[in-house]
């Protein structure tokens, strides 16, 4: 009997203070392990291909692609975080309390930076569609790089403040050994919801409503325009912008679909338990979004498919490969 009880504990040597294992069925645990491992591998590899593609090929050094690069970096780290979810299949945390706090901190930073990047992408598309004549002057690579840097810096500083108590006293909110818990204060939680979710989502929705209204009106104007040489050039450029708008729109819609459940569940209570089934599900849904983004690029962007082929075949190692025509 004692042997059976000890087998159900995360730390059998600590009978009175150890947490109990989740003890899922063997078949269920195997399915979860295979699923998470597959998502982890695909997320890391695919987003690494995006990072290498945009970083290596000079033709891809555009303002919009720099924003996609920032998102790919965040998604790459998400793929690495899935490794911790794989470790938690039985519901036990075997690493240190400090590692637990850092895990949540990195998770919060990535989420905040991803949302911030989505806002920047929305602003980029808003200017490209609503003010195309001044787009090249307003949206420069230097300005985009500064905005991306500020977005990540703000996410790091803000989330460190939100989880300050957990970082100063790691494990202080655990009720047993083998548990990983962080507690966010009431006012810090409200600030996090407003700045990392409600505010950005509101901005994204408002901008995209405005963008689609302008896009529809401009499309109607283009159809009635006389096809002069200049007009044809304008139409071609406008179609290119619409194609980019369509792709990033899909990315943003999928992101919001995966993000909303994450916040709805994690913010229903004050405590965030890493071994909670609801938290695990919405976290995996958020993680899966990071795997979907590169697949969306592959579906809509010919340049990503071409650059991926060059990377896999190691042709990027050739001298001058960064000058290769991708577009």
From TrEMBL:
<feature type="transmembrane region" description="Helical">
    <location>
        <begin position="101"/>
        <end position="123"/>
    </location>
</feature>
<feature type="transmembrane region" description="Helical">
    <location>
        <begin position="184"/>
        <end position="213"/>
    </location>
</feature>
<keyword id="KW-0297">G-protein coupled receptor</keyword>
<keyword id="KW-0472">Membrane</keyword>
<feature type="domain" description="G-protein coupled receptors family 1 profile">
    <location>
        <begin position="46"/>
        <end position="297"/>
    </location>
</feature>
<feature type="transmembrane region" description="Helical">
    <location>
        <begin position="66"/>
        <end position="89"/>
    </location>
</feature>
<protein>
    <submittedName>
        <fullName>Trace amine-associated receptor 8c-like</fullName>
    </submittedName>
</protein>
<dbReference type="GO" id="GO:0001594">
    <property type="term" value="F:trace-amine receptor activity"/>
</dbReference>
<dbReference type="GO" id="GO:0005886">
    <property type="term" value="C:plasma membrane"/>
</dbReference>
<keyword id="KW-1003">Cell membrane</keyword>
<feature type="transmembrane region" description="Helical">
    <location>
        <begin position="244"/>
        <end position="265"/>
    </location>
</feature>
<feature type="transmembrane region" description="Helical">
    <location>
        <begin position="144"/>
        <end position="164"/>
    </location>
</feature>
<keyword id="KW-0675">Receptor</keyword>
<dbReference type="InterPro" id="IPR050569">
    <property type="entry name" value="TAAR"/>
</dbReference>
<dbReference type="InterPro" id="IPR017452">
    <property type="entry name" value="GPCR_Rhodpsn_7TM"/>
</dbReference>
<keyword id="KW-0812">Transmembrane</keyword>
<feature type="transmembrane region" description="Helical">
    <location>
        <begin position="30"/>
        <end position="54"/>
    </location>
</feature>
<keyword id="KW-1133">Transmembrane helix</keyword>
<keyword id="KW-0807">Transducer</keyword>
<dbReference type="Pfam" id="PF00001">
    <property type="entry name" value="7tm_1"/>
</dbReference>
<feature type="transmembrane region" description="Helical">
    <location>
        <begin position="277"/>
        <end position="300"/>
    </location>
</feature>
<dbReference type="InterPro" id="IPR000276">
    <property type="entry name" value="GPCR_Rhodpsn"/>
</dbReference>
<comment type="similarity">
    <text>Belongs to the G-protein coupled receptor 1 family.</text>
</comment>
């Amino acid at each position: 009997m004692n042997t059976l009880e000890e087998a159900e504990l995360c730390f059998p040597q600590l009978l009175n203070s150890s947490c109990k294992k989740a003890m899922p069925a063997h078949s269920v645990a195997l399915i979860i392990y295979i699923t998470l491992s597959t998502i982890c591998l695909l997320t890391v590899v695919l987003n690494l291909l995006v990072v290498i593609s945009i970083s290596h090929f000079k033709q891809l050094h555009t303002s919009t692609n720099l924003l996609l690069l920032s998102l790919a970096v965040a998604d790459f780290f998400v793929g690495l975080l899935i490794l911790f979810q794989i470790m938690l299949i039985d519901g036990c945390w075997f690493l240190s309390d400090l590692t637990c706090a850092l895990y949540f901190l990195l998770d919060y930073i990535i989420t905040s930076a991803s949302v911030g990047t989505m806002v920047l992408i929305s602003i980029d598309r808003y200017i490209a569609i609503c003010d195309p004549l001044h787009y090249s002057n307003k949206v420069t690579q230097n300005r985009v790089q500064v905005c991306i840097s500020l977005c990540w810096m703000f996410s790091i500083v803000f989330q460190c403040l939100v989880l300050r108590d957990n970082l100063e006293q790691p494990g202080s909110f655990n009720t047993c050994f083998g548990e990983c818990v962080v507690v966010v204060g009431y006012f810090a939680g409200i600030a996090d919801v407003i700045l990392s979710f409600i505010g950005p989502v509101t901005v994204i929705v408002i901008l995209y409503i405005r963008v689609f209204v302008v896009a529809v009106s401009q499309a109607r104007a283009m159809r009635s325009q006389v096809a002069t040489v200049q007009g044809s050039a304008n139409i071609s450029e406008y179609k290119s912008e619409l194609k980019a708008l369509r792709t990033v729109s899909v990315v943003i819609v999928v992101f919001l679909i995966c993000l909303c459940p994450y916040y709805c569940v994690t913010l229903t209570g004050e405590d965030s338990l890493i071994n909670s089934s609801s938290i695990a599900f919405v976290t995996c849904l958020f993680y899966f979004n990071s795997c979907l983004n590169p697949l969306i690029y592959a579906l809509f962007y010919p340049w990503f498919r071409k650059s991926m082929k060059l990377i896999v075949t190691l042709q990027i190692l050739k001298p001058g490969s960064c000058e290769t025509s991708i577009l």
